[in-house]
Design goal:
The complex is a heterodimer of chains A (about 280) and B (about 400). Chain A contains eight helices and eight strands. Chain A has about 280 residues and is of the alpha+beta class. In chain A, helix 3 packs across helix 6. Chain B has about 400 residues and is α/β, with parallel strands linked by helices. Chain B has one domain: Peroxisomal Thiolase, Chain A, domain 1 (3-Layer(aba) Sandwich), CATH 3.40.47.10. Helices cover about 35% and strands about 20% of the residues of chain B. In chain B, about 65% of the residues are buried. Classes of the chains: A alpha+beta (about 280), B alpha/beta (about 400).
């Protein structure tokens, strides 16, 4: 089944193939669970497992870090990509904000000495670092942020890598639940993580081709084709990558806004590839 | 595939040494550190590299974004004005990217606001997390002031953040997506960082002394550097090769032999098609901790040998975290343009276990290629090979 999402108007476009998808959101711990529509019962554990981390680093990782590990693992497995060599780009708008708030409370509310263990994983690149350590990946990794444009940023960073010779790149966008104290006037969002494995556009394992424009265009979110995410997900700054993951899994075609209208207007154009049995729905 | 060298057509800098080229060059040549008493109240002693230059206020519609970080960005952009004007006349705005790096983003502003929240249950009326803390806040300011409307994001890989931005710009140009970019990075002093490094027992009470016998840790600094990089134009310096590797070893400790650092330097040389003998100087990461300096020294020795002068300019500025790679790229450019290798600062002798040429007086000569290293939490490594055009 293919849905037309509108007409694109890309600037300086570049096409890549999507060969793997991973998703985590409360109630749906994998992309497969999401596309099958089978939500976990509320009394079942909803937390990400972080099983892609080794035991030591799983203990160090935040809930968001574990979600990132889960979705990267799911996407890499579907793509048949090697975690030891595949570059990973992590995008997050607010990074490890809970760790930061914990440190602030420790310093000024509890007046305790700062925990060195928490300090070292309060950096934005904690998850990408822990992933590289656990996977023994000695190559490229990065961690980037651009508020609601983070999904566009990770795609463009990946395009740069693919254009300069990398065969496959994993991109992941995640933000933990919004810190209510710091964002009391903004709509609350829940934790979300979404990952894609991207490769050259001629990859025979492609689930879809994605054409990314390097500048904002006039594509606007189309409410009729947006997934109905569980409550609180649509406000997560990373929902654009989840929207794209959902569109790939459901074999949609056409233009797709990456920012739900809250960023600068970056968009992609999707072309599904003939089903190979790997795609869902 | 070997990407084309990245052309640096302009650069600006701000640190404890001052603002702009002349003040930095003067201090580096004189061997005068910018480290001094830390302006942030702490329950322990440490030196810090505070920016003392006056910073411009943000005005009009940008006033709600006016934080110390944003004002630093404004100063750096102002000092890049001339090459930026030329670039704007040459390239379409949507083909000019803004790619910056920071480790702490607006943490300094949030710290002040959070203390009031704890004391009185309310944040200050003018505090706005999204406009004053997030990684996107400074991007908004830089895009608005520069007129650049291409791709824009912050790299935040701790102490390699701003080094990553040069590599990204090079790749986006190779992909044909941009023609120019404002790259670099910035960070401010904040209590969390100082307390955090103190909790790791990584801060020196005295001004840091990288590679010296009695070195005892880091001095934290603040500041930044921006560079304009273009597809073609009159380059001040070029970046011939960039190495980006991971230690895959430990979240905060370096690989003991500096294996990841060594691979980053080797990768930078390989991408440039250069040999170790082509390197005239190394601007080391050189934080001043015993472990970091020992590991890096081993890596440098394995790559370029023991004759090349190696200096860590963190003894001048402190460790400016996410800004360090860009600031030290600017210092590397000064070395090439001015023929100056600044001296290693510190009262005691160079560590006899460090088998490198660490000059303790300024060197004058012709330096055509400089390797500039930055390493970070997460085991993230970046090495930039900076060259005369």
């Amino acid at each position: 089944m293919s849905h037309d999402l509108g007409s694109p108007s890309p600037v300086s476009p570049f096409s890549v193939a999507v060969t793997g998808v991973g998703l985590y959101l409360p109630g749906f711990l994998t992309a497969q669970a999401w596309t099958s529509g089978e939500a976990l019962p509320a009394d079942q554990p909803q937390k990400p497992t972080g099983l892609a981390f080794d035991r030591v680093n799983r203990r160090r990782a935040s809930q968001m870090g574990r979600a990132i590990a889960d979705v990267v693992h799911e996407a890499l497995a579907q793509a048949g990509a090697d975690p030891v060599t595949t570059p990973v780009i992590v995008g997050s708008s607010i990074g490890e904000a809970s760790a930061m708030i914990g440190l602030l409370d420790q310093m000024w509310r509890e007046k305790e000495p700062m925990s060195p263990a928490v300090f070292t994983v309060s950096v934005h690149n904690a998850a990408s670092g822990l992933l590289s350590i656990s996977a023994k990946n000695k190559g490229y990794t990065t961690s980037i942020a651009a508020d609601y444009d983070t999904p566009a940023a990770v795609l463009l960073e990946a395009i740069g890598l693919i254009a300069t010779g990398h065969e496959r790149v994993a991109v992941v966008c995640a933000d933990e639940a919004s810190p209510r104290s710091l964002l009391e006037h903004a709509p609350h969002w829940e934790m979300l993580a979404a990952a894609l494995v991207l490769s050259r556009s001629d990859d025979p394992a492609a689930l879809a081709q994605v054409t990314v424009a390097a500048a904002p265009d006039d594509t606007r979110p189309d409410a009729a084709t947006m997934p109905q995410w569980p409550e609180g997900i649509e406000h997560n700054p990373q929902v654009g990558l989840a929207d794209l993951a959902d569109a790939v899994l459901r074999r949609r075609a056409g233009a797709l806004a990456l920012d739900r209208g809250k960023g600068r207007g970056f968009a992609v154009t999707l072309s599904p590839v003939a089903a190979t049995g790997a795609a869902g729905a | 595939m070997r990407p084309r060298p990245l052309l640096v057509t302009g650069y600006s800098m701000l640190s404890a040494l001052g603002r702009g080229r002349a003040q930095h060059l003067d201090a580096l040549a004189a061997g005068r550190t910018g480290l001094g008493p830390c302006p942030i109240p702490l329950d322990f002693e440490t030196a810090a590299g505070a920016v003392r230059s006056e910073l411009p206020e943000l005005e009009g519609a940008l006033q709600p974004w006016s934080t110390r970080l944003a004002r630093m960005a404004t100063a750096l952009l102002h000092d890049l004005d001339e090459p930026l004007r030329r670039a704007r006349a040459r390239w379409r705005p949507e083909r000019i990217a803004v790619l910056l790096g920071t480790s702490t983003a607006g943490a300094e502003t949030t710290e002040v606001a959070y203390q009031q929240f704890i004391a009185g249950g309310k944040f200050p009326r003018d505090y706005d997390f999204q406009r004053q803390h997030t990684f996107g806040a400074v991007l908004h300011v830089v895009r608005a002031l520069s007129g650049a409307s291409g791709p824009a994001w912050m790299a935040s890989t701790a102490c390699t953040s701003s080094g990553k931005t040069f590599a990204t710009a090079q790749r986006l140009m190779a992909a044909g997506l941009i023609d120019a970019a404002i790259v670099g990075g910035l960070d401010t002093l904040c209590t969390m960082t100082l307390q955090g490094f103190n909790s790791l027992q990584a801060l020196d009470r005295a001004p840091c002394r990288p590679f010296h016998e009695h070195r005892n840790g880091i001095s934290i600094g603040e500041g930044g550097a921006f560079a304009l990089v273009e597809r073609d134009g009159d380059a001040r310096v070029t970046i011939e090769g960039i190495g980006e590797t991971s230690d895959a070893y430990h979240i905060s400790a370096p690989h003991p032999e500096g294996a990841g650092a060594q691979r980053a330097m080797e990768q930078a040389l390989a991408k440039a098609g250069r040999e170790p003998g082509d390197v005239d100087h190394v601007n080391a990461h050189g934080t001043g901790t015993r472990l970091n300096d020992t590991a890096e020294a081993n890596a440098i020795k394995n790559v370029v040998g023991t004759a090349v002068p190696v200096v860590s300019t963190k003894a001048f500025t402190g460790h400016t975290l996410g800004a360090a790679a860009a600031l030290e790229l600017a210092f590397s450019a000064l070395t090439i343009e001015e023929g100056l290798v600044p001296p290693a600062l510190g009262d005691d002798a160079i560590d006899p276990a460090i088998d490198l040429h660490i000059p303790t007086t300024p060197l004058r000569g012709s330096y055509r290629r400089v390797l500039s290293n930055s390493f970070a939490f997460g085991g993230n490594n970046v090495s930039l090979l900076v060259a005369a055009p």
